[in-house]
Amino acid sequence: MKIFDAVILGAGASGMWCAHTAASRGLSVCIVDHAKRPGKKIRIAGGGKCNFTNLEVTHADYISRNPHFVKSALARFSPWHMVEFLSAHGIDWEEREHSQLFCLRSADELAAAIEDVCSAHGVEWRLRHTIASVTHADGLFTVHTDDAPIQSRNLVVALGGPAWPQAGATDLGHRIAKQFGHTIIAPYPALVPFAMPKGWALEGLSGIAVPATIECAGKRFTENLLFTHTGISGPVVLHASCHWHKDMPIVIDFLPGHQLEQELEHAGGKPLVRTLLGRLLPGRLAEALLPESLADKQIAQLSRQDTEHLIQRVHGFTVTPARTEGMKRAEVTGGGVDTSGVSSKTMESSRIKGLYFTGEVLDVTGQLGGFNLHWAWASGQAAGRALADSMQE
């Protein structure tokens, strides 16, 4: 049986990037995945255009029990490394708001380019292979699949987390990590919409979108908010969801950048409160936010208590989500392999020599905006280089 220098479990972003990094340095590498083709999440991310990095990426854009863990890998892999890769392969890209970089035509181009680079460096593919178990003995890892077993001197777990199961995601990476003695920070859905309590005050506004600020767990985010049939979504909600825990209230400002009190003063005393708020917000939202007792009052008729109540509804609307929409609607998995048992420089396990973890399987969650894919590339490269260095020792 052929013994590879490294077997990588997972043909996603971090796994393929690790593979091409290691193989380009002369290692024999095999990628194992149950998918029919590699890079499925890359291909469908960002509406098929793939937000592949962010020009403003820093360690502050990541959530982890160890907020310093990402610093080493990020320092050695900048957004311009990805831009250089795309340019070298003739893939056009564009910058969108908030310094997000997307493929101009199709994410398929990026996934195919990484796949081609891997193959060009001799990476062997074991696709449509279901991983049954992994064992470790006498310095070798054996990956038992529904086909033949595969052996290697090193093993990279790049299997992601259970978010987005319709794209093939499972918790297998976490189970393998636990098997080798690693602690798992409880996984949770992140970058996910909120489901609101039945009968909440703003029910029935599906389809309305407005700029909003959400405060959650001491963090504030300002982006678009979208009302859905079950609750709220949109970029600002996805950001907030990374910090939300069950039974935690959130505070929504529906007029960020405005001061409702000043708007009331400048409008004069004659207009109805309903009229003023309808100029500032979509009509149905304005009606839902307005206390019935104030809707048909003139501004001049508002007492101080009325004004404060109105300001609270518009700038400080407080509600406790019933839940998130769960792993099926989550873009990424929060939690994962505890980074205290992994080297931040090499991504190698501190428990088992030759065992590595990359990407989303780790307790590292990026905010919305290309940060999770950037972490996939950065952690994959760190592991790939470390593999090459270890084989040369």
Automatic annotation (TrEMBL):
Its cofactor is FAD. The keyword Flavoprotein applies. It comes from the Bacteria. Pfam families: HI0933_like, HI0933_like_1st. Residues 5-385 form the RsdA/BaiN/AoA(So)-like Rossmann fold-like domain. Residues 188-332 form the RsdA/BaiN/AoA(So)-like insert domain. Keywords: FAD, Flavoprotein. NCBIfam families: aminoacetone oxidase family FAD-binding enzyme. This is Oxidoreductase. It comes from Desulfovibrio subterraneus. The lineage of its organism: Bacteria, Pseudomonadati, Thermodesulfobacteriota, Desulfovibrionia, Desulfovibrionales.
